Amino acid sequence: MTVSRRDLLATAAAGGALVAGTAAAAQQGEPIVGDKGANIVGPRNRPREAEEPNTLRPPDTDHGTIPNLKWSFTDSHMRLEDGGWARQTTTRELPVAKEMAGVNMRLKTNAVRELHWHKEAEWSYVLKGRARITAVDPDGRNFVADVGEGDLWYFPGGTPHSIQGLESDIDGVEFLLVFDDGDFSEDSTFLLTDWLAHTPREVVAKNFGVAADRLAGLPSKELYIFPAAAPAATIAGDTVHGNGPVPETFAHRMLAQPPLKLKGGEVRITDTRQFPASRTIAAALVDLEPGAMRELHWHPLGDEWQYYLEGQGRMTVFASETKARTFDYQAGDVGYVPRAQGHYIENTGSTRLRFLELFRAPRYQDVSLNQWLALTPPELVESHLKIDRSVIEGLPKEKHQVIAP
Ligand code: MN
Ligand code: MN
Questions:
Q1: CA 340 to ligand 1 center in whole angstroms
Q2: What's the pLDDT score for residue 92?
Q3: Which listed residue (357, 379, 393, 398) is catalytic?
Q4: Is the pLDDT assigned to residue 27 strictly greater than 90?
Q5: What ligand has the least distance to the C-alpha of 133?
Q6: Angle of helix 16-28 versus helix 5-14 axis, rounded to 10
Q7: 294: buried, middle or exposed (CB in 10 Å: 19+, 13-18, 0-12)?
Q8: How far lies 287's CA from each of 73, 294, 346, 368, in Å?
């Protein structure tokens, strides 16, 4: 609702108390903070504005030019296929995100993401449903596993693999994939059928040691996502015995890990200490109660790629040189923080905020502002901050990743 000056004057005639309330209401959805700003009178997209309150009305501590650090999968192209879909967030969508890229994919029951490989390592978090995954490593050792909500998988770069939806309460599976290169494209993977369709048929026949007429059924183009026969009832039934299993499992039950319970939330960290195969991606799953906050911190080892699973929150990123910018996020959004830039994440909703923090690193690592200051000579901190000594001495020497409301 827009309220014109004439409306306000008319209302003023009706009563002074009412006018204050009306003026406040009129400013609610407008870029007005205190004495600054003015209402929008040109074309506008109100649903989008409502999702970005801190972009429409930035805190006055925001300053300077910071590249966009938000992308919603809602804005990613949907690749629709027989049996499912895929959409991606790469440097094409979020140019700042050079270290990692993400794909959101859905496979209905028995639908298969075709046998394939790619240069990049693939880390995944199962969002809903169940899947059977397979892989074979360069030494001919194989891997088959069933995964469900909150489970991870990790395939090293170049390792051939597949994903198949299993019967579940959502008819198959939906998952998030994260790759250790922002330039990754889900449309540029090496597909089994695409390769064979572009190899002389007599070469394929020679390679398989059969006459070419035995290969009449080979698809003439890629399958990518397609409906397939149901897998065996059990993993054992789908396990081909050859050179034994991969020495380090490619699957891990992240959500089943006991969380670090903190006042205001929970944290689960999964890196090579918990999941040795995941050498290039380290992860944290963070739950924040309403009003709780992931404390002010930064990460020494790499950029942070975030995926919001539930709820809504805001993050301000500090980029040095007076620059800072605040973004709003909700379920299905991607956030990004360049390496070493300071930030917090605050639950601004009325339900749990759950998100993933991902790093292209073998280890999860962060530096806590509170812990840093608590372990620095208090006189020195007081000289900087000019705040009461008791505030400084009250800071926790143990790291508290979550701050209670
Ligand atoms: Mn893949
Ligand atoms: Mn962080």
A1: 29
A2: 98
A3: 357
A4: no
A5: 1
A6: 150
A7: buried
A8: 21, 9, 11, 18
Check if 357 is active-site: yes
| Mean pLDDT, all residues of the chain | 94
Ligand nearest to the CA of residue 114, numbered in listed order: 1
pLDDT digits (tens, 9 = 90+) for 326-377: 999 999 999 999 999 999 999 999 999 999 999 999 999 999 999 999 999 9
CA 112 to chain centre: 23
Measure 110 CA to ligand 1 centroid, in angstroms.
17
Tell me phi and psi for residue 289, to 5 degrees. -70, 160
Ligand 2 geometric centre to CA of 301 (Å): 11
pTM of the model: 0.93
Query: Which ligand lies nearest the alpha carbon of 179?
Result: 1
Closest CA to 149 of 182, 123, 173, 116: 173
The two structure tokens encoding residue 243: 């050179």
| pLDDT tens profile 272-306 | 999 999 999 999 999 999 999 999 999 999 999 99
Alpha helix segments (H runs only) across 32-139: 46-51, 53-56
Cα(187) to centroid(ligand 1), Å: 10
Cα 242 to middle of ligand 1, angstroms: 23
Residues 6+ apart with CB under 8 A from 143: 133, 134, 135, 136, 137, 245, 246, 249, 250, 251
